[in-house]
Write a structure and sequence with these properties.
The chain is α/β, with parallel strands linked by helices. It is built from 16 helices and 22 strands. Strand 10 and strand 11 form a beta hairpin. Helix 9 crosses helix 14 and helix 12 crosses helix 13. It starts with a strand and ends in a 5-residue tail after the last helix.
Length: 503
């Protein structure tokens, strides 16, 4: 009887459990969406208990669909929406508030206070990150300032903080009884609290943000032969399964795309858009608005670092067109609608719904549609929505080239939007490099499976994983230079118009 590796993909909009065989092929999966809660403009929340309940549901359902019992799973790896912040009681397991999601802008005033002394890059030399609403540290501080119960528990030492993987690992390995309170280096590197050089919590920053050390999980390698614990027999697996791999979703996609060499890059088109470039064992400082982050770490080895360009709104813009404007009934319809016209008709959409992330880092920006004339139809708007994803990626790629000095030769792509051929062709045209889609587009979950599989010896090493990677399709640039430059100039103009909208 063969064994399998399980991957929990804890995304921004849904949770999935995917079962992989030794060739990295999918043997079974299940998926469940969770509610997006918007209590005020710019605020985004999730219910942590719903995320845990859905996690248990998808594990049971995927095993059932694959006709497997839990003991056939050799180990599980976890990948997650990063920066999303949960604070809970370690005795009862109850969260003090809803999870504050990475996109949420409620900490903007708090971030201004932090930046007043030392500027937006006050902690960058230690953390590789600017002070921004995106990261977990200010979200923890906000909860402690605004929730009396959480604050008292934190002072007493009974409150725990975690990003989503920490929360789920804690429940899977026992919860209030014996749950492991850990976070892997990639997720820890997104909190604004971890020192990139020594991979430990920075006491000076904790002191500045008034966050008690006792709340924080232990930082562990992403690929860890020392298992953090096993699932409980009365849990969703019905058997003890080692939990020994974890990666933030974008780093998981990097591993799933087998970008193990310096200079290899991948772009994921999900809720947001995330371009990561492997810079090896060197943490490259960015002076062009990118983030320096941990790519992955294997126990006993030096960490591999990345430069990252994070775009807040990508696939979420298609959802907005569907749910808020009602221009399409289903997300895939956008391609047909956009393909019915030859270009954007002069219209550009900049989806700065929660400010602009990389390379601008402007929380005062708000989304706009510009260049409207009577000529523009909903088909042009649909096309502008797709093009916005490609242009935002271009902004990041240009910044990456300036920081690293490494030219982009091609771009490996993954995520839900890579099935959109119109977008992929336009991306190749605007970047002027080939865009390559792999056979297994579920690279985020695959990366989590690889992390657990390497940790437990299911796969022998990185070379095994490279052999699993197969190309599905490549798009080559077809646009002439004049047209490309004209399109880019229009985009840059539109971005300018978004700035300074919020006082």
């Amino acid at each position: 009887m063969g064994k399998y590796i399980g991957a929990l993909d804890l995304g921004t909009t849904s949770n999935r459990f995917i079962i992989f065989n030794a060739k990295g092929q999918i043997a079974g999966m299940d998926q469940k969406e969770h509610r997006q809660i918007f209590p005020k403009p710019g605020w985004v929340e999730h219910d942590p208990m719903e995320i845990w309940q859905n996690t248990a549901d998808v594990i049971r359902a995927a095993l059932s669909k694959a006709g497997l019992s839990g003991d056939r799973i050799e180990a599980i790896g976890i990948t997650n929406q990063r920066e999303t912040t949960i604070v809970w009681d370690k005795i009862s397991g109850k969260p003090y508030t809803n999870a504050i999601v990475w996109q949420c802008t409620r900490t903007s005033q708090l971030c201004k206070r932090l930046a007043a002394n030392g500027g937006q890059n006050r902690f960058r030399s230690k953390t590789g990150l600017p002070i921004a609403t995106y990261f977990s540290g200010p979200k923890i501080r906000w909860i402690l300032e605004n929730n009396q119960n959480a604050r008292k528990a934190a002072e007493k030492g009974t409150a725990l903080f975690g990003t989503v993987e920490t929360w789920i690992i804690w429940w899977l390995t026992g919860g209030p009884q014996s749950g492991a309170h850990v976070t892997d280096v990639t997720n820890a590197s997104r909190t604004l609290l971890m020192n990139l050089k020594n991979l430990s919590w920075d006491e000076e920053i904790l002191d500045t943000m008034k966050i008690p050390f006792s709340m924080l999980p232990q930082i562990v390698p992403s690929i860890d032969a020392q298992t953090w614990g096993t699932t409980r027999s009365d849990g969703p697996f019905g058997a003890p399964v080692p939990v020994c791999g974890a990666l933030g979703d974008q780093q998981a996609a990097l591993v799933g795309q087998t970008c193990f060499e310096v200079g290899e890059a991948k772009n994921t088109y999900g809720t947001g858009c995330f371009l990561l470039l492997n810079t090896g064992h060197k943490a490259v400082d960015s002076s062009h608005g990118l983030l320096t982050t941990v790519g992955y770490q294997i126990r006993g080895q030096k960490p591999v670092y990345c430069l990252e360009g994070s775009v807040a709104i990508a696939g979420a813009l298609v959802q907005w067109l569907r749910d808020n404007l009602g221009m399409i009934r289903t997300a895939p319809e956008i391609e047909t609608l956009a393909a019915s016209v030859e270009d954007n008709g002069g219209a550009y959409i900049v989806p700065a719904f929660s400010g602009l992330f990389a390379p601008y880092w402007r929380s005062d920006a708000r989304g706009i549609i510009s260049g409207l004339t009577r000529y523009v139809t909903k088909a042009h708007i649909a096309r502008a929505v797709l093009e916005a994803n490609a242009y935002q990626t271009l902004d990041v790629a240009e910044a990456m080239q300036k920081d690293s000095g490494v030219p982009l030769n091609n771009l490996k792509v993954d995520g839900g939007m890579v099935v959109n051929e119109l977008l992929m062709q336009f991306q190749a045209d605007i970047l002027n490099v080939p865009v390559v889609r792999p056979k297994v587009a579920e690279t985020t979950a695959l990366g989590a499976a690889y992390a657990a599989g390497l940790a437990c010896g299911f796969w022998n090493g990185l070379d095994d994983l490279k052999q699993n990677w197969e190309e599905d399709k490549t798009w080559t640039p077809q646009m002439d230079d004049l047209q490309r430059q004209k399109g880019i100039a229009g985009w840059k103009k539109a971005v300018e118009r978004t700035l300074g909208w919020v006082d």
